[in-house]
Amino acid sequence: MNLEYMLKWVMPVVVFVVTTIILLFVRKIVFWRLKKWTQRTKTEIDDILVSSLKFPIFLWAIIISLSIAISISSLSPKAVMVVNKGLLVLGIFSITIVVANLGVKFFIYYSQRSKINLPATSLTQNLIKLFVFLIGVLIILNSLGVSITPLLTTLGIGGLAVALALQDTLSNLFAGFYMTLAKQIKVGDFIRLETGEEGYVVDIGWRATRVRMLPNNVVLIPNNKLAQSIITNYYQPQPELAVLVQVGVHYDSDLEHVEKVTIEVAKEVMREVPGGVPEFEPFIRYHTFGDFSINFTVILRAKEFVDNYLIKHEFIKRLHKRYQEEGIVIPYPIRALNFDQEKKK
């Protein structure tokens, strides 16, 4: 009786443990060899594959061991069938997770290295996962003997009702998808809205776009509102931009000398200040005879929008010091009062 009991319950457990140990040992050897192989290759694709398969292969080893142990157990055929179906569902679900994760990782990899029109945002990544999971669910239902055709028909009819109930959500979803495809805004761009908010685009989600402002706050803007707003993108067509500084000098100044000194300071700032474009040739343009000064604009260049603050800061400091050394006067605001004319009135 004890021997029968052992054969009935203990043997499946022993087979499960032994099979699991063997499979995990094989897994360790295989991954050790794969790691050596990936270190010799230059591409990152094999690294993505190996890292994505570590846990799933462990899970598959458990599923295989359970399947073998159940096959030699004394469970009824019906119970064995139910357990095997459960293991099959678990296996398909784990494969679905692997495919979804691999799809997202490969998409990120190729979007960073190629000029595809679909940047890697949380919206596009979630859409890939959703598509893979839907296929996985359909495969699971089909493996369980559930007819898919009536289900798809029901989903088609119910989808219309859901679409009407979630108009705002779907509006944000399609607006985000449109902005992603059109590449009007990309993750990492510095933008300014017509309402005054400005900052770096952190992510374009299915509902809202996250923008990190310069004070390190995050603003959530609904995709639909963002798509309808007037936006200045400081990274389009390229991050480099002109930095304009307004300056005024006294009417008695030698304008040729002023131009020469100002450009020398501007070139020094371009070379030495972080964020400046060293190869850019700064220039000035006189434009106004003001009330108390001759005004002009100094044109500098920054590598990106936030660099313009430091460039202006350093340029104003250095220009003020150089003007004092050269005897160039930046006049104070002056207002003349004609007392004789006032008395005649």
Characterization of this structure:
The chain has about 350 residues and is an alpha+beta fold. The protein has 3 domains: about 1-165; about 175-235, SH3 type barrels (Roll); about 240-325, Alpha-Beta Plaits. Helices cover about 60% and strands about 15% of the residues. It contains 10 helices and 8 strands. The protein has helices spanning about 1-40, 45-70, 75-115, 120-145, 150-165, 165-180, 225-230, 255-270, 305-325, 340-345; strands spanning about 190-195, 200-205, 210-215, 220, 230-235, 240-250, 285-290, 295-300. The protein has a 5-stranded antiparallel β-sheet with strand order 4-3-2-1-5. It has a 3-stranded antiparallel β-sheet with strand order 6-8-7. The protein is elongated. It starts with a helix and ends with a helix. The mean pLDDT is about 80.
Summarize the structure.
With 345 residues, the chain is α+β, with helices and mostly antiparallel strands.
Produce the secondary structure layout:
Blueprint (H helix, E strand, L loop, with lengths): L1 H39 L4 H27 L5 H37 L8 H22 L4 H18 L1 H16 L7 E4 L4 E7 L3 E6 L4 E5 H6 L2 E3 L7 E9 L5 H18 L10 E7 L4 E9 L4 H20 L12 H6 L1
Antiparallel strand pairs: 1-2, 1-5, 2-3, 3-4, 6-8, 7-8
Helix pairs in contact: 1-2, 2-3, 3-4, 8-9
